[in-house]
Specification:
The two termini are 32 Å apart. With 469 residues, the protein is an alpha/beta fold. The protein contains 18 helices and 17 strands. The structure holds S-adenosyl-L-homocysteine.
Length: 469
Amino acid sequence: MDYLPIFLKVEDRKCLVAGGGKVATRKVTLLMRAGARITIVSPQLCDELRALLEQGAMTHVAREFQDEDLHDCVLVIAATDAKAVNRRISELANAQRIPVNAVDSPDLCSFIMPSMIDRSPVQIAVSTGGASPVLARLLRSRLESFIPAAYGRLAQLVDDYRDRVKQRFTVPDQRRYFWENILQGRVAELLFAGHEEKARIALEEAIDDTDAHYNDPGEVYLVGAGPGDPDLITFRALRLMQQADVVVYDRLVSEPVLDMVRRDAEIIYAGKARDQHTLSQETINQLLVRLAKEGKRVLRLKGGDPFIFGRGGEEIETLAGEGIPFQVVPGITAASGCASYAGIPLTHRDYAQSCIFVTGHLKDGSVDLDWERLAKPAQTIVFYMGLHSIPAIGRELVAHGLPETTPVALVQQGTTCDQRVYIETLGSMQDLAERETLKPPTIIIVGEVVSLHEKLSWFGMKNKQAAAD
Ligand code: SAH
């Protein structure tokens, strides 16, 4: 993080704007909205700024900037068209520890102005640390489009009742649950629909009706986090990630996904690297039960889909046995995520009419899969957890009738920016581990569909093309 985002109180404090053109006008408009006492220093003012001067409580000093103009200022904008003057202002302000922003000169700024979404009192500020103001503006317009304008009024309503709710619900967690229900429920909907008075009445009823000693029972959300790319999680997963009190996650959950969890949630790592389970499955099952019984909202976050080689079933069986409420949110499983990102359709009218997912995690290196059933023509086979069985997979499928030339893709760290795809055949894959250092997680796709990779791969291709150019 190159900058610390903060919101500065400038109401009724002296802010200096040096310059009288269009850029100065934009800054003056913002400062006016925040209630600043503005002094503009500039020999001339553009028409727009002159019009603002007539409406607002501002002072105009009609001359060039002088050092003493900084006296008593809490913030300075250097927006003259002379770079040397802006530099002088910046140096003086820095020496006096006054925050300064010099237009279009990041090196002269001690603070930068974000792109803003104003739903006062809700303020959303977007910054790219000066790297790309255009990107910040694009992000802002996206946010604008899905944050209802009424959010400001909603925040105002909450503010009006804050003290009353604080008295009524003395336990902070209870208070949080209460507000979460209000902000996501009927009261918010009434307000968004323009029924402010009805919303107020409904909120008052909720304060009076809700049992202040009511202890919310805990719940477990068994959530699929997808194969790695955070864009692949579902809206529902995201919502629950932001509501959870505790998160219990596996090694497969990628860091960018974990970053989207509520900041103040407790985070517990449950491991699950091959052969070194940090917590045993039974310990995890019991942990979920205990946390839920403490009244917590527990997010059990698993890579891919929780019901595909994820032992999600076992975990919720224990919960069901204990009568603990739970919900299951599907995720994109590694097979479909990795296949898509490698440009390999798992089925295809010309190549494969069926697709089968199996685990390649073979006990003691022995082979206890039904190879007969796997080695069928026109079928795609996806091996999860097959990294240590690569030679066995190649050998057995050939022994059971598939041609040595059958194409195979090994997708390593699929859907992430570290994705690597190895294209082999059943014959050539057998000594792959000797030639390459393969890293987990890796998924193995066997079948004629793999031949489409050459034509259909798209992910990461733009970068490759750019590098080639
Ligand atoms: N529940 C998960 C699978 C857990 S088993 C799901 O639905 O995806 C773990 C195996 O999944 C790994 O050994 C690997 O074979 C595969 N896997 C998971 N994420 C992967 C990724 N990003 N790239 C490649 N393989 C992955």
